[in-house]
Amino acid sequence: MPAPGFIVTRRRSAETTRAAILEAARCRFSREGYEGAGVRDIAGDAGVDAALVSRYFGGKDELFAAVLELSAKPDELFYGAPEEFAARIAALLVRDPQDDAKMDCVLIMLRSASSPKAAAAIRQFIEARFYGPMVEWLGCADATVLSRLLGALMMGMGVTRAISPDLDLDAAGREALERKVEAILLAMLRPNQPVG
Amino acid sequence: MPAPGFIVTRRRSAETTRAAILEAARCRFSREGYEGAGVRDIAGDAGVDAALVSRYFGGKDELFAAVLELSAKPDELFYGAPEEFAARIAALLVRDPQDDAKMDCVLIMLRSASSPKAAAAIRQFIEARFYGPMVEWLGCADATVLSRLLGALMMGMGVTRAISPDLDLDAAGREALERKVEAILLAMLRPNQPVG
DNA sequence: GCCGTAAGTCAACAATTGATGACTTTTAAA
DNA sequence: TTTAAAAGTCATCAATTGTTGACTTACGGC
Q: Which residues, given as ranges, of chain B have pLDDT below 50?
């Protein structure tokens, strides 16, 4: 806490502010999408001038691509045995707080999918960093087809929670939904077993 | 085809142009979302001046709400026995052309969910015209919870096809995916039967 | 045929957007 | 301490947004 009359100011460092902009952009993009998030808002959150965004990243497009690259952590999603995967992802989709960074890439994708400017970056990112690792983890013959099904449920839950974070359910309802999501995920991975 | 020197012009009618604006707006909103679709674009598609949008509907917000109200045809989605429902919806989600009006409400919802301006209208619409009829059709005890699961898969497929209409699959892959979606839908509705 | 009114057009508005170049401040090496 | 480059700020640009008011055109009852 500085004495009265003094102000706290961050030490000037290109790397630090670059990271601050990236973090603020990740937050804004995941909440408001590519179109909705303004460069001034992002810069404001990062505590820097809006001009620095264009300076450091070349433009909003490149910033968006950089955020996608940053928030791409598929190894945090696709691993483990089917049972463990189903339980973990179900908890992530239903229970986890919305601002959890793990789901950010999904949120960013779906919130920006309708923007023509972001579409190119989105498509490339999805294929390389979402479906790709998913298919590799699945490993089975129809992995590509199956990945669309899995991805749809994950993105769909993302949309649903984006619209209303508590899913318009009480605690018991969310608990029940988490069980259902877990069962369905497992059913997708093991098509020959009952869901119940 | 009019002779050279003559132009075709629509007969002046408030009702007709109102409908034309609504149709153009439905199309644009479902493709570009609330923020992405401009009033000038919509008016251009409808073949009228942009000023008429504000004139007839009061503003972009009200136009959006009117489009939601227009494209709300839940009775075209939620009916039939589980087997028939699963087959029909699977075809709709995987096979149908993207510009089919039946899925427009889903597309509009997900493409505009991130816009604060449209969020209020979206939430109200979803509850009243999507989850409501779905829960009523389901009829079972945990219908509300189940509706979130069903809705998530439907919206997720919508997002997926919004990003790449052909799902990045060949014809055989789409056929296989449609079977999988059908099986999963049925599994959601009948949790005690195997998926295979 | 005339004319009031509804329907449509046009120009312009204020606000916001992303981006740029000139300028000032800080930093760290010499 | 000096100084040159890096880092940050500011004012401003051009484009686009939704919206409004004044104007012009076309329709239908008299």
A: 1-7
